[in-house]
Amino acid sequence: MQSPSHLRFHYEVPNYVNSADVCVAPFVRERITTGVSPLKLYEYMSCGKPVVASDIPPVGELLAKHGCGILVQPDDSPDLARAIIRILQDRILALRIGMQARRVALQFFSWRAIAEQIARVCEAAISARQEFPLQSKLPRDIVGVNHLSR
Asked: For the domain that residue 22 is a member of, what is the CATH number?
């Protein structure tokens, strides 16, 4: 049985990403207000690639906080080109940024790291519930039953 083509492509993404010397995520200024999910950045980072991206939330915060990319102004093609050229001409910078990106991706954004974060949140919630269990009988007015019977 063969996988649907969109599933096969997902497994091929690392091959395409790894064929690049630098990965680019140019977002337009308009995305600042509409939001963005930087999934492609995590894919680039997990492959150990240096990233050049537009400085919009949350992309800018992610790359600046972890030092794993070069940020450029949104909608600024010359700025984008300069950053790409800088990475391509400075192999040491490219390797340093790429290695840091890989470390960050594995430490904070791998499926294992995310599962561990979720487990910690669940354990804290269970612990808090054991320390402060909800009262089994709340006054009827609090739960809104009395107004229904009127």
From this structure: 3.40.50.2000
